[in-house]
Amino acid sequence: MRGSTASDADPATTEAAEEREASGAADEPTGAAEEHAGGVGEYVEDARRARWAAVGTGALLTCAGLGAALLRAAGAAPALVPAAYALGAAVCASAAVLGARGRTRRALWLLIAGTMIMAVGDQSD
Question: pLDDT tens across 104-118, in order?
Fold first, then answer.
């Protein structure tokens, strides 16, 4: 035997490869290890994106809440209004910290709670 060619390969292996190629599954990974390695990379990227979103949103809402608290405190609004904005900003700041640590689900709920606190304070004006 001089060397192996495609015609020298095992007929069962060749047929299986041709069937996979014909069905369009040739590009898909076949082993469980390959599927697991691809899924972990996507999971890490999604987790990183969620952390950045939680931190960015928390920082933005914190700045907005503090700005609104300062503006309302300088005006003729009741004391409850700037206090509600400041409390909501503090809750959003804690959500940003939790998001940076990877606790994105808790950060989301704190962002919702902080925004609701600010909205209730705005309604009491």
Answer: 999 999 999 999 999
